Protein 1
Amino acid sequence: MVKYFTETDIGIREHFDFFGEFVVSPAARSGDLALAYGLRLEAGEEGLSLAELFDKRSDSQEQVEGGRIDIGGFMLTAKEVDGGGNIGSMGLKVLR
């Protein structure tokens, strides 16, 4: 029984290590997140949704779960992606 809880704890930590400490909505405005967390955005990115920012900065044409972009000291990761490549949720990880 103790082994089960230990493995679960490790799994949760690995999940946070990969996806980040926070779950954010892809519909959230990039400028709001930048203001709240001190993210550095390029000119004109403040009005983009996080999904739009992700698409703009990503090297991939089609988004997949686990895809990532760096936003000046933070990592934004696609946590859930549907069959059409639409991001359902994202993780935000502080890299500093």
Protein 2
Amino acid sequence: MATTKAARTAVKNDINTLKDDLKVLGAEEKARLREKATATEARLRAKAAEAETRLREEADVLRERARGYYDTARVRGQEYYDEATERFDEAQRYLVERVQERPVQSTAIALGVGVVLGLLLAGRRR
């Protein structure tokens, strides 16, 4: 019986030693995983900062490009406006000259156009 008791005690001691070893290994592995997680987090933060910087640079480039397109469109729009204003002024001058040259004929034409428009508008109401 003494051998069995000694064997049991030896097995218990071995099991306790294994438990202690597992605790130590678990703590070591936990520490290693924490280190890896910290390193990975640092790498991810660095990549995120790098991506943010790149995105800001791209946004600046796009903003400048859009500003260039806007300025070009504004200049062209102003040119078209100036040209249209000039043509309108020319048409107005031409019309005034023609009316001054033939006032009776112009009045008759205006009266005729007014009558036609009046008939058209009256026809829609019915």
